[in-house]
Amino acid sequence: MALSDIARRTGIPAPTARRYAALFKDFFQGRRLGRMTRYPEEAVPVFLRVSELYGQGRITAEIEEILRREFPRTIEVGPASEQMALPAVPPEVAAMLPANLTEVLSEALSDALSEALSASLDRFGETLETLADQKSSLDIQQSDITKLKNGFVLLARNLKRLAKRDQADTVSAITRIQDRMRNLEPKLAVMEEITLTLTSDNADLKARLSAQEVELQRLREDRQRLENILKNISGLPS
């Protein structure tokens, strides 16, 4: 099956299935045919299991460890090399060779190939472990980045909420002040009228006081003249 078939069978989006196939290719037993990779029927449960584990919040390293316990792994060492035609052995040389030369060569080649294959598998296993550790580290970093992004989003929302709340409080305070000013306008008008009345009364009082001072001065002058007249009449020196 192609990845598109896997996506239709499992309900997993094709880009997600392609990412699963790249991350856990050793568990899907895919075979390269031309430019496309085909997967056997046994790969369907693996795709479903990976999707389920991601849905549980598992990270890539944890999922790979679980898959190792639940599904077999397929490691491709590489395509078989092309056959090479060996040169013909001269008869005199062939007569000197032992009769079981084929068995000896096969056993020697088998041992050499086994050692080379074992060493290659060991190095490949170490490489896979290193890649798994790197993927785990990347997953942790990605999780931290996601947490930071979520934190910034929450902070921005809180700032907007605070700005809206402060703006609402300011508008409410201005409204209350305007209401108080409107309530004070009649009182201010009365006070202004009283002030004008007092000012007018004060002006009248000042005018009356000035007139009384003038009258008092005139009375003082009249008294002085009367006193002078009395002194003249009584013959006293002025």
Task: Please supply descriptive tags for the structure shown above.
6 helices, Multidrug-efflux Transporter Regulator, Chain: A, Domain 2, 238 residues
Major β-sheet strand ordering: 1-2
Number of helices: 6
Sheet with most strands: 2 strands, antiparallel
Strand content: under 5%
Distance between the termini: 150 Å
Number of strand elements: 2
- Poorly predicted segments: 80-88
What general form does the structure show?
Answer: rod-shaped
Portion of residues within helices: over 70%
CATH C-level label of the domain at 1-74? Mainly Alpha
Encode the helix/strand succession as letters: HHEEHHHH
CATH architecture of the domain at 1-74: Orthogonal Bundle
CATH topology of the domain at 1-74: Multidrug-efflux Transporter Regulator, Chain: A, Domain 2
Mean pLDDT across the residues is 76
**Structural class by secondary-structure content:** mainly alpha
Radius of gyration based on Cα positions: 56 Å
Could you give a quick summary of the protein structure above?
The chain is mostly helical.
Fold and architecture overview:
The structure is a single chain. The chain is mainly α and 238 residues long. The protein has a domain at 1-74: Multidrug-efflux Transporter Regulator, Chain: A, Domain 2. It contains 6 helices and 2 strands. It has helices at 3-10, 14-23, 43-55, 60-70, 91-96, 101-233; strands at 31-33, 36-38. It has a two-stranded antiparallel ribbon with strand order 1-2. Strand 1 and strand 2 (36-38) form a beta hairpin. Helix 4 (60-70) runs antiparallel to helix 6 (101-233). The protein is rod-shaped, with a radius of gyration of 56 Å. The chain starts with a helix and ends in a 5-residue tail after the last helix. Mean pLDDT is 76; it is low at 80-88.
